[in-house]
Design a protein that fits this description.
Layout: E1 3-12, E2 17-25, E3 27-30, E4 40-47, E5 57-64, E6 70-76, E7 82-86, E8 100-102, E9 110-117, E10 123-125, H1 133-136, H2 138-141, E11 151-154, H3 171-174, H4 181-186, E12 191-194, E13 196-199, E14 202-210, E15 217-224, H5 225-236, E16 242-247, E17 251-252, H6 262-272, H7 295-298, E18 304-309, E19 326-327, E20 333-335, H8 343-357, E21 367-371, H9 388-396, H10 402-406, E22 415-418, H11 444-455, H12 461-464
Parallel strand pairs: 1-9, 11-12, 11-22, 12-16, 13-17, 16-18, 18-19, 20-21, 21-22
Antiparallel strand pairs: 1-4, 2-5, 3-4, 5-6, 6-7, 7-8, 9-10, 13-14, 14-15
InterPro entries: PI-PLC_domain (IPR051057), PLC-like_Pdiesterase_TIM-brl (IPR017946)
Protein name: PLC-like phosphodiesterase
Organism: Lophiotrema nucula
Length: 466
Amino acid sequence: MGYGGYLTLVNGSPNDLTVTGQHAYQMDSWSWPTISAGKSAKVYMEYGMKGNTKDDGAEAYYELTGTSNKFSILARKPSDYQLTISLDGLATKTSAQGSSVNMGFRHDEAVNWILSTDEAGQFWSNSGATTDWMQQSLGSIGNRTLKHITMPGSHDAGMSTFNPGTIGANFANTQAQYLDFYAQLMAGSRYFDLRPVISNGQWVSGHYSEVEDSGVWLGGNGQSVSDIVSQINTFTATYHELIIINLSHTLDTDNNYKDLSQDQWNKLFDTLKGINNRYTVTNPGSTDFSTKVLNDFIGNNAGSVFIFAQLPSGISLGDYANQGFFTQENFPIFDSYSNSNDANTMESDQLQKLKDNRAISQGKDKFHILSWTLTQQPEDVLNPDRAIMNLGVSVNNDLMDKAFNAFTLDSFPNVLYVDALGIRDKPVVFPYDKVRSGLATNSDLASLAVAVNNGIAGRNTAVTGG
């Protein structure tokens, strides 16, 4: 047996990716398919272990059918296993024609090459950083409604660290994100699930749940809200993107985990008023802002932070409605997680819900959250290897092939909603005493969102108005 891994090729262009040739020496597996427009393929390759393995090598040559654009995939083993994309005959927004993109290699796991073409005919890829991907995409998506744009999203976005809360809570069963709020923004996330709680008299992110209606709560705290406010402001001072924040699961953990009172909500809003560039409208009423186009928020080259709150019964915004805070009536969403720790169950459930609830041609286009998250079950809670972030990285790569291939011009999600955004490798490993530091990060999810906007939504004239 050789030493194998995968490369997922995502084709977000209007042209098929056609193999024009391939060659291998001492490779045990090297076979590349043609990939249709708007589809992807997860391809297995295997280096041979016989002879001088430093001689192992292979090439596959691709062209975009009907164009002169082409690239090559190269496998080499000079000292370690390597996969390289050679941009022989095309340039992307971040890589010049003729350049080489080192994709790395992961044993029995995948690395991703995501290629898409926008309405101007420019190529996008996941090589290099496109932190301000919304601004750079405005020529294509600026006049689309938010309901017709795909973006990465962060589940339990404030839980990028763990501060002890209840008995039984630890970083493995409480921390959902490896990157802090600012780093999630830099990795391309634009939709944030923020769960503010009061703990020791302070506003912090919380991740708490009641154990089977027993009155017993399990959970802990993450980043402070003041820290998150500061990180948002640091980001928007440089990058003029739209950030959507969904406030939910608010609790007073100092007072038997009760819902926040009106006075406490008001104090939370006062704290969040420290966020610069809040999107503000006088007397918003019941306006559905998901029907507004992206240019309405960031078309003037300024960042915009849209904050809506899932308010409990009896709580109102009052005058805060005129100060950059909205209710869920102002931003209706479809958000139904699978509550499963099994990848196949979750993925089938989420893709079926997308199919059932999202059909633009039939007027079924509520802002759709694709909850690509696994939920710990009782048998997982005390098993560090089944940490929330480990479960997250185990399924995030499936967005590149299983999910992308299920999206259609008529049915695609608005939020690719994940745990452990921006990393590929398990952050919780033996000896399980702490979260691993220094893991490599990536912005593949942002590139995938761009590929959906370019190669799937961008081919629907009902979306583009073309």
